[in-house]
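Forwarding these from the shared drive since the link keeps breaking.
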Amino acid sequence: SSPNYQPAMATYRNQSSIRHTSTINNANDADNESDDEFSLNSGSPAPSDGGRPPPLLYLRITNAKVVCSLLKTIQFRDLATICASVNGLKVTVEDCKSLQANVYLQTSLFSQYTLRDDEPLFFKLNYVMLLECLQMFSDTEASSPAVMELFLPDDRSAVELHLEDAGVVTDCRIRTIEPEQTLDFNFNAAALCFKVIIRSEQLKEVFSELDPHSELVEIFVSTERRLFRMSTFGDLGRGVYDFPAESEAVEMFQSPDVSVAFRYRHALLKCCLKALQASAKASIRCDQRGFLSLQFLVESADGHNCFIEFFLVPNQPEDEDEIAGSDDERH
């Protein structure tokens, strides 16, 4: 059944002068430092408005374009679920039960990040609306980057964005939606079928050459020949693209005990293209069930390493002839 929520909407207010905001100081309080790999920026409390309680979540970044460019890489559906934790934000977009994309925004990316409670915080919103708000200044050729502040008030009714660029302040308010539980693919990273790390530049070339008319893309990893292969099947024939383990494009090759092959819907792999184009390298992992994990390392404009991850479900063959035929063709 559909969740009860009000339609997502945003309100804007432009001002010709800089709006006054509370001064935020980043105090170095050793007693409040986290033992996590990515610790929470601590010291100053989140700013409050009048008599309202402090927001559940407050963050500030001095270059909104950094966040916008990362979030655009998983823009293939209208809604997104956001999880805020002491390690940062995880933004999730899903396609039915076949594909999940996650962007990880670590606390080190923000100049200020305050989570009022220690427990993870979940909320859902209109992703298209969020990106439209972020792109208002991100697409301009301004001499200085736009500063973004994000608030989630105590009632969780809406996400409030404040963007400032060259003396112009824009306030946006996007209503939230009651979040549903995101998919758990139960991906077992400790029991991988194979793992390959490939430089994105070479992998982009292969993605651009995949037959667009092929409904499926096969990923084949050979133990004997030590190679990673992507294949398409179209009216014009079969396309084969190999990455030998010894090639310069391959930085890591962990092969299975026996050669394996799984097929995936081409339409799902296309959703990864924006993240691939923005990345420096890609980690391709597969578990025993054929569930695929694609992790992309992206270096942001301000020098931070960020990660984007996709989980894909393998295509189930309709009959054994499809499997047998593909085995014959590989040789």
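-- next protein --
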Amino acid sequence: MRQIFYACSVLALLFFLSAFCQAEETAPSSAKIQNEEYPAKGLVMKTMGGRQFWGDIQFFQGWKIQQHVISQHYRLLDPKDQRHASGSLEHCRDRLAEMKAARQIPPMQGKAVILIHGIIRSSKSFVKMKESCEQKGWLVVPFDYPSTRRTIPENANFLGKVIQSLEGIDEIDLVVHSMGGLVVRSWLAQQDVVDPRVKRMVMLGVPNRGADMADRFRSNLLFKAIFGPAGQQLVTEANSDFISNLPTPPFEFGIVAGGRNTLKGYNPLIRGDDDGTVAVSSTRLPGAADFILIPILHSFMMNDPETIAHTLRFLETGVFRESGKPQPIPVPQAATVP
């Protein structure tokens, strides 16, 4: 009986992993790390992977400066992910200044949309969303962070540095998937004053009340190894107060949830309707300006045409539906003592 239970638990965890995402890059070898840290002078080359070990700290017209979470060194990447410098932060910034002048890269201006991926994923998971936003004439900032190697607040620090680096940008919108929404809320908790340029955010399948599947597997060694410290913070409010203490965004935000619109969703291990990974009830954060439920699995939301259409409409108008009629999630009124 115990063997049957163990086998079922393993199968359930594998289902969870496949539903959540597919790891897009593997960890770099020590030789790769050494090559990243000590490149030949002036050598421009494609990066060697290991996205889970790098966090963005600066963005300029598609160029990025990233920091390695283990060695703590920095690298400068161009929009094609080719490395132009590696070493100290000062060296990378000096090299970026040289590239700006040599290539006559214009300053940033107008509206920027920051795309924030979920756990294990990278900015590459937003390919179609990125293209659609660029067609609107918006500057797209595909934010990368080491989701499985650092806690959610630590990853929020990376986000804060990127937002601060967006000089010349007048307006900032956010499109977040899964844990990416919790990274934003954690960033908000770190701010005395929220950057007034941030206007709107669309949440895609964000576990705003935690994930049942994280509750189920948080003690599993495989889960701990793959999802890291942030995975332990994804548990529901019944098992941790981390998520419940995160602030509600002070700017306009809308929520897209995936589900079947039935009493049971795609995953029988999750209570109520769900997208295969996150319960619909967990996505519902009071204060949302609009909410919409669509029949889509968690891992495919970011590149789903219907989801993209709703997202772009909300960023432009503040509502998801063509009718212009929102379905807000009201904030519960505090009980008054008679």
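Residues 2-29+109-317 form a domain with the Rossmann fold fold (CATH 3.40.50.1820). The longest strand covers residues 169-177.

- D.
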